[in-house]
UniProtKB/TrEMBL annotation:
Lineage: Bacteria, Pseudomonadati, Pseudomonadota, Alphaproteobacteria, Rhodobacterales
Organism: Wenxinia marina DSM 24838
Name of the molecule in the record: Ysc84 actin-binding domain-containing protein
Keywords: Signal
Residues of the signal peptide: 1-20
InterPro entries attached to this UniProt entry: Ysc84_actin-binding
All copies of domain Ysc84 actin-binding, residue ranges: 98-181
Length: 185
């Protein structure tokens, strides 16, 4: 007979609540919801961080993840949905997920955009069956009023990640170890 402990119940409720919060109406108007969230996120990013407009202009495409939820209580995980845009048009939809373990406690939400700075990096992303973030990525963490660092805007790396709009009670946000998978909303 299985024994339910407080810790097991807490973890189960936390995981269930996280997954329920991530739903966006699969089988319904999921694509329209994702596109609306992506539009709002891009508009916010351009208004708050004007330097990102230059990144978009120089990039081959960008993956916009409007809301990523990250939760950790011993075990942790992240989940979010977004859209890949090429020349301003949505070409695919993706989910983002990761799992982690260790000393962690808290929850947060944030937005992030991956700018594919070369046609090759965009092609590799689109042709992969589940793309995982590797070491060839530059991070730009943005806070209110901060501008992009010069080394970010002149980087020769194939992918630049911009993380912004963090809220919650967890220190730091990272997309390392994150897997992106094409979805049909």
């Amino acid at each position: 007979m299985a024994r339910i402990t407080r810790r097991g119940l807490t973890l189960g409720l936390l995981a269930g609540g996280t997954l329920a919060a991530c739903g966006n109406g699969i089988g319904g108007d999921g694509a329209a919801i994702i596109d609306s969230r992506v539009d709002q996120t891009v508009n916010y990013m351009f208004g708050a961080y004007p330097g990102t407009q230059d990144l978009m202009a120089r990039s081959a495409g960008m993956l916009v993840m409007p809301v990523v939820t990250e939760v950790g209580l011993g075990l942790g995980g992240t989940y979010g949905r977004g859209a890949l845009r090429v020349r301003g048009a949505t070409v695919d939809y993706y989910s983002q997920s990761s799992l982690s373990g260790g000393l962690q406690l808290g929850a947060q939400q944030y937005s992030h955009v991956l700018f594919f700075m070369t046609a090759e990096s965009l092609l590799n992303f689109r042709q992969s069956d589940g793309w995982a973030v590797g070491g060839d990525i530059e991070y730009a963490y943005l806070d209110q009023g901060e501008t992009l660092r010069a080394e970010t805007t002149t980087s020769r790396l194939p992918v630049i990640a911009v993380i912004f709009a963090q809220t919650g009670l967890r220190v730091g946000a990272t997309i390392e170890g994150t897997k992106y998978t094409r979805i049909i909303p």
